[in-house]
Amino acid sequence: MNDLKFAFRQLLKNPGFTAVAVLTLALGIGANTAIFSVCEAVLLKPLPYSDPNRIFMLWERQPSGETLNLVAPANFIDWREQSRSFQEMAAINPNPDFVLTGQQGEPARLSGAAVSPNLFSLLGTRITFGRDFLEEEDRPGRDRVAILSHSTWLHHLGGQPDIVGKDITLNDISYTVVGVLPPDFEFVSKASDFGGRNQFDVWVPLALNNREKLQRNTHFLRVFGRLKPGVTLTQAQAELDVMAANLALLYPEWNNKTGIAAVPLLGQVTTNIRTALGTLLGAVGLVLLIACANVANLLLGRAAARQKEMALRVALGASRLRLGQQLLTESVLLAIVGGSMGLFLASAAIRVLAPYLPADLPRASGIGVDVRVLAFTGLISLATGILFGLAPMFQAQRANPNEALKQGGRIASGIRSRMRSGLVVGQLAIALVLLIGAGLMAKSFWTLLHVSPGFRVEQILTARLTLSRSRYPDARRIAAFQRELLERVRNTPGVQSAGLTAYLPLSGTDNGWGFVIEGRPALRTGEYEMAKYRPVSPGYFETIGIPLLRGRAFISADNEDAPFAVVINESMARIYWGQENPVGQRLQFGPPIWRTVIGVVGDVHHEGLDAELRPEMYVPFAQSPNNEARTTVVIRTTVNPTAVTVALRKAVSTIDPAVPLDRVETMEQLVSASVGQPRFRTVLLAVFSMLALVIASIGIYGVMNYLVMQRTHELGIRLAVGATGGDVLRVVLGRAAMLIAVGLCLGLLGSVVLARLIARLLYGVTPLDPLTFAAVSLLLSAVALFASYIPTRRASKIDPMVALRYE
Fold first, then answer.
1. Residue 663 DSSP SS3
2. Please, which residues have CB within 8 angstroms of residue 51's CB and are 6 or more apart in sequence?
3. Whose CA is closest to 76, among 94, 64, 92?
4. Which of 780, 713, 730, 717 is nearest to 751 (CA)?
5. Do the domain assignments include residue 394?
6. Which of 211, 387, 636, 690 is most buried (CB neighbours < 10 A)?
């Protein structure tokens, strides 16, 4: 307690030193706390299920082992029946959409999921009101029951306390509500796993019919499994490999070379973000190291003023251990004060960051300061205090009390100078690592932003329509609605053109088909060429600005009664036809119908600006093999795109007031959202690197200022015997240049390691990009030299008479 009281008095006695040290530590600890809170919520916090470490996602795996595919219904049924390692298996079909009608207000689109009756029991989720699905409800004709999310029950159904047992109208069909999920229930997985969404409003039984139960060529299920207690993943995977081999023998046409992969659910959720968050956490850790080095330098400078105090303590009988305890108490107290302020800064930073978090960041809703974050801040503050307190403690241990008590004694000035110089070299090296990392990320992000998406971005409005399958049961009825809607929209003032698509670029929705080309040798049994599948309307290519390269685009005559047509993209034409003109060739996918290639259009980045371009097939909506009841209208305007929103809603409600319209966004907003994660990590890493640069610059300024003070007597003699101010400038600045050079060399080595670690996060930039390395090194050198020049210039103007009377 005496040490603590004395430490408080020392901090209050030196308010300038205390303020600088506390602020430096607060920035370092606060940044670490903020990023740890993100990592804790996204990567470390257990999933909100019962015993979540035993829950896995099961996928069909291609021979390469890298591609994981959706599961065919018949394969899922076989897995569930044959597995002995998994306690339960459940499947989900995330494709259903529902239109809720019969309530007050406009019809509402609800995202739906058809699930096995045991999904919620597999997850360990308790139903708040009502009950779970029954096994007998998992069959066609008995599946008109629904479980609602808490938000759907609250916002769309008024939070009726007696909702269980009541009927609601979904797609013009009556469903009985049997349960409501808890308010904190979150169905955790990547949005890309579920067609751009990871939350569902309505849950209904999967209820596969007899035909679907035999399907092995249609893949649309996501499968979850819970391991039995005591069974390891290795044992389960071995069993799955045997099952896959048996199914390949029984059904070679569809299961040839198809494996089964079990992926831990938490790993599935965080696959795309783990490297990025790990990089950011490492970056803020380096910032904290720089802050510690800076505070250690401050303490070493302060130790010079306290050397006689320490020598007197030793002379009066204080042991070296007792002396070290006093100094560590002061440094730990300083760190705790800095940590407390850092926690406040972290809380404020989280509130500021919340609106700017990427939309596809999983579990972002759980980010905040909780008990684990508080414990992290406390531990890191304690560790930080010990870390930066070691340098002055060791310095004090080495001091000679007899020399220190002499009037003119300069105790261990060389040792202290070397220690401070070493700390500055470390600061510069770490700052260079962070700056080069930020430079690579920034160049990558800049390159990504300048990737041509393959379509027009400006003056485009998009909005999603959901047609009830009961009211629009076939492609003919859907096409009639679409034709009338496009006619009304195109006649709206300010609208230049309009079109429709089932899978809007960068929306997270996607689909694909296996296909065969007429006249080509058949692939081995069960193998198909694959291409993305895009139903669109006439006018879509012109509206969104996808260029027509060969042939023609779709016209109104390409309806359900016309010869079946298909338009392919440039990548598909190049891969499968090479220099040959594909127009007039025929291919087949879905039902056994030959479709003629009538045109070739430019490539489009559908999945992301950084995604690989893939073969794509476009078909007219009227000739789609699927009942595409969920469509997106795309409108090119001559005015502000949002200005036609009211007219669009009116056109839809005039045709059918039961059709909901949602996700009204401009294409610019969609493109911006698609680069949310790269923008997030680039901005944060840039902020951390600039913070490191500032702290490191302050550090080198402090060291050079200290060296000038230590060498005042020497510099005075030099000037007295004829040296010029320029000579002094070269001597002192030469020492600074040496420190900077050593720091740069070490930093470049560390940067090579960091660049290789973040290589997978870069787009269009090599990890060892010479321009980035050179530019950042020059920037850091210039800033560090400028920070050194200020005290050096002051040294060159020393009055020799004053300097010779220095002591």
1. strand
2. 124, 226
3. 92
4. 780
5. no
6. 636
* Token reading at 75: 């394969």
Residue 64 to residue 83: CA distance in whole angstroms: 24
For residues 691 and 435, the answer to whether their CB atoms sit within 8 Å is no
Q: Please name which of 344, 333, 325, 321 lies closest in space to residue 385, comparing C-alpha atoms.
A: 333
* DSSP H helices in 399-455: 401-404, 413-449
The residue among 511, 757, 763, 502 whose CA lies nearest residue 612 is: 763
User: 292 with 219, same domain?
Assistant: no
Q: What is the pLDDT of residues 521-564, one digit of tens each?
A: 765 545 567 889 899 999 999 999 999 999 999 998 998 889 99
Please spell the DSSP secondary structure of 480-498, one letter per residue: HHHHHHHHHHHTSTTEEEE
Tokens of 254: 């569809």
Give CA angle at 653 (647, 657), nearest 5°: 165
d(CA 357, CA 369): 16
Count other Cβ atoms within 10 Å, centred on residue 449: 13
Helix (H, G, I), strand (E, B) or coil at 397: helix
Which of 132, 41, 764, 658 shows the shortest CA–CA distance to 442?
A: 764
Contact 707, 794 (CB under 8 A): no
What whole-number distance in Å separates Cα of residue 610 and Cα of residue 519?
Answer: 35
Same domain assignment for residues 764 and 743: yes
345 plus 243 within the same structural domain: no
Which H or E element spans position 115?
strand 108-115
What is the rounded distance in angstroms from the CA atom of residue 527 to the CA atom of residue 516? 10
Cα separation of the two ends of the chain: 38
- Whether 274 and 351 map to the same domain: the answer is yes
Domain carrying residue 187: 63-257
Mean of pLDDT values over 656-664? 88
Q: Are residues 407 and 417 in the same domain?
A: no
Residues in the chain: 807
Q: How far is CA 115 from CA 51, 155, 223, 718, 797, in A?
A: 21, 23, 10, 86, 81
Q: What is the pTM of this model?
A: 0.78
Does 250 lie in the same domain as 278? no
CA separation for the pair 252, 390 (Å, rounded): 68
pLDDT, tens digit, for every residue of 405-441? 554 444 445 555 677 778 888 888 999 999 999 999 9
Q: How many helices (H) and strands (E) does the chain have?
A: 25, 23
Least trusted range by pLDDT, from 69-78, 98-107, 253-262:
98-107
